[in-house]
Amino acid sequence: MSALPNPSTPHTSPSAPQGAPHTARLRHFVQQLAALVEQRLPEPDTLAQGATLLRTLVAHDDWLPDAYAQPHPERYQQYLLHADALGRFSVVSFVWGPGQATPIHDHTVWGLIGMLRGAEDSQAYARTPDSRWAPQGAPVRLQPGQVEAVSPNDPAIGDVHRVSNAWEGHTSISIHVYGANIGAVQRSVYLEDGTRKPFISGYSNSTLPNLWDLSKNPAPAA
User: Fold this and answer.
1) In this predicted model, what pLDDT tens digit does every residue of 35-65 receive, in sequence order?
2) Share of the chain above pLDDT 70, in %
3) Closest CA to 49 of 37, 58, 60, 61
4) Rounded distance between C-alpha atoms, residue 17 and residue 144, angstroms
5) CA end-to-end span of the chain, whole Å?
6) CA nearest 93: which of 123, 118, 74, 73?
7) Per-residue pLDDT tens over the stretch 2-15
8) Residue 184: how many CB atoms within 10 A of its CB?
9) H-helix or E-strand spanning residue 51
10) Is 222 helix (H, G, I), strand (E, B) or coil?
11) Is 158 left (phi over 0), alpha (psi -120 to 50) or beta?
């Protein structure tokens, strides 16, 4: 996986912020992202410009509704925050309880991951000559405000990794953006011996945050 340049990393507490969420930040992000994908730019440009937008979003930890920040005692949670009506992108909060991690997996579409709260470790994997999967390079630790990318189309970025909560005693939350409705995409989990298991992730929630009631979500101060 590729960590993207980050000009500044704000301090963010692993604990949830107090007060009503400023969901206008997420609404603005979704609008900007929709305008970006509408341009149909080459993937490297979409990733670069999308990373700038996502970095701005995760620079503030005051907008994610509490319902989409809840850990599960047994498994990480994948909450859908927004799905583009044309299936061009989706925005998801990943909530990691202490010690939780994914298996080795792919995405099959471009993706951006921005750290909102806590920290996570991403270990890239590569296929060996005997068709096994082995760690590739050192794990990348994502801290609040930082953004990294995944891509099936750019070997320098990579698409297969394993992610874990870097905090032993706290919940961590990252915000993911994918170039499809990721919960409906057929993907794969891999074992180190090369075994492939297809899966479709779905989502942990059945309701979405209401971003469109402007009377209840005025724009916050920058």
Assistant:
1) 999 999 999 999 999 999 999 999 999 999 9
2) 88
3) 37
4) 14
5) 31
6) 118
7) 555 454 444 444 55
8) 13
9) helix 43-58
10) coil
11) left
